[in-house]
Amino acid sequence: MLHNSRYAVMAERAFNTYAFSLGFGRSEEAVPSHHVVKAVAIVFDLPLIGNGEIAVHLWTERIGRTSATMGFRVCNRDGSTTYARGTRTIVNVSGETMRPTEWSEGHRAGFDRIQGPEA
To answer: How far is CA 105 from the centre of its chain?
Structure first.
């Protein structure tokens, strides 16, 4: 049975894979930025037992001036069974001051591309 802490790790890895593909945190950005996790909430629907491939679906629930909340769902590969679902809120911080800073237009566009399950 998969340990409960691993679901948050899977959501983190899925988001980071997507974020890095958009250029989050690149040193060549005009204003390098980083995101830090503010909150994670998870509801466990079914235990994930055994080995096999899983999927993590991501979507943007809310984008603020300096923060964003992403929804996620950990499920089997075809999406027919949900093991856990939740939200993950991040804050964009300056790479220099480590204080909250506004998202760039490029980052906002990246969040806008991730549609929720109802879209």
So the answer is: 18
Q: Tens digits of per-residue pLDDT, 8-20?
A: 999 999 988 888 7
87: left (phi over 0), alpha (psi -120 to 50) or beta: beta
Is 27 strand, coil or helix?
A: coil
What would the pLDDT profile of 41-64 be if each residue is shown by its tens digit? 999 999 988 887 899 999 999 999
Cα distances from 119 to residues 18, 20, 39, in angstroms, run: 19, 24, 24
Pair 74, 85: CB distance under 8 Å: yes
pTM above 0.90, yes or no: no
Residues in the chain: 119
DSSP state, 102? P
